[in-house]
Amino acid sequence: MKKTLFFFLILMALAFTANAKNDVYPTNWWTGMKTNSVQLLIRSTENAFTSDNVRINYPGISILKTHQFSNKKYLAVDILIAPETLPGEIIIEVIQQGKKQKINWPIYKRRTGNGTEYAQGVNSADFIDLIMVDRFSNGDTTNDRIKGMRDQSLDRNQMYDRHGGDLQGVINNLDYLQGLGVTALWFTPIMENDMVNRTEHGYAITDHYKIDARYGGDEAYKKLSNNLHQRGMKLIFDAVYNHFGLYHFLEQDAPDNDWVHRWPEYTQTNYREQPLFDPYGAKSDQKKMSNGWFDKIMPDINQDNPYMANFLIQNCIWHVETFGIDGIRLDTYTYNDLNFANRCNAAIMNEFPKITIFGEIMVHGAANQAYFEQNTIDTSFKSNLPSVVDFQSLYYGIIPALTQPFGWTDGVNKLYYTLSSDFLSKNPMQKVLLLDNHDEPRFFSIVGENVEKQKMGFQWLLTCRGIPQLYYGSEVLVKGFKAPDGLVRSDFPGGWSTDTKNAFTGKGLTEDEKSTQDLVRKLANFRKTASAITTGKMMHYIPVEGLYVYFRYDEKQTIMCIMNTSETDKEIDFQKYNEITNGFNSAKNVVTDEVFSSLNKTTIPAMKMWILELNK
Question: What residue range is the signal peptide (predicted)?
Fold first, then answer.
């Protein structure tokens, strides 16, 4: 009987070792990283760990400490990677009831070219295209549906179903994007989004270490990154610190109960940033803003939990190094714990000194926005976020400039006032400008489907200070509002083989669509070599009767931008601006090629914009 029991226990131990399935996060690391202290989160998907007794026998790798959670399927192992450590396959031994459970974990040689071939950053010389991969182009129909994933929808007639776009579709059309003048691509999140529905946008991540198979997985993303860098283009990663999807394993099988914010009953954020800096604000409002859930299907991450914080920071570094990321856009930035955000930003910039980080600061008011970025304001909290998506110049700038009658504080004066508030920011040239995005109505719809206003918007976008960002399809007048039909996320024309209209080739485009696309293409390619726009200074004049004039200039070049937002023609007296125009004798419209042989007086038609390169 004793012998039978003895052999049974041996067989059980062997079965435990043989059958146990373990995942390690991060899934790998590299030699030669500044971030050489790494916290491994080991997860067993089957059996509980009976202890936190862990050994690693690998030259240069030492264990600093271990931690076991209330959910015994998880272990945290802090390791230190010495500078002399060589790449290889590390064996992590977890001692369970006297038996060793072996887990393989690779460490690689890091990629070369940090700051030159990747992690280069984006700047005002770039032109970003924001693309929703599911809505751009279907380059591989075999991944339209993936067996076992919760969302099996595939219907282009339903705006909130999946449509089938993928990374191969983007790769197939890089010639178009580069020809348009685009230098950098930013995608809404493409990590695994294994939710029940509404997975087209990507913001309910369920696995931070997998690129969604419906987009082509890790290999397609690496292929795209390589293609971009071979062309001299850049890749921007959309990181989400604030929340993840309800079906993320860290929610469905949490290590402890405090990895997300828990409330006695469901509590949504109040979506109000003011309590974070309001001198009269209530602590309860502040707590609800930062700790309330964005949505019932998006648990709010507790960044005060050091293990959760490490998981996020290491994951962002991992993505940059794995896929050759050049810039990072941070989603829902205002809802994060801001001290954590500072720590995360610092860790990323320490590892990749030239990388660009810009946050989604969807607030109302220039001072409100500046609070969350590097600023000149004397406040107790100081953000280290280098840059932001500049919603102020959208909400209180170009939209009222082209949709409101001119007044003392209305119309184009709002644009003037908003840009005048740049003194609050340390890096206004790094602000990311936009006309629209996946959360905002298409600009063409906002301006009443007025083609000339859309063109004026693009001319402003591509000449104002900052980094211009296009939203896919707006160059061919794609229109739509968020509600009720969600057309703001329509498919790019020509991205599917059955499309009768093809914006990639021009087939089926109207004259208005072609002319708008041509304007974007010509101006975006012009600005590539226009030092006055990409690195020069800016000076603007107080608008008069709807006429707004600003200059971009340096020692090599002077560009005069004239925006007539009124309903009547306006006289332009170049001598009025002689502190800049003095010494110049002629000008050329860089969009139409019209030449002004003298700089005296002329007339600009109603609702028109000119971009003039001044010549001596």
Answer: 1-20
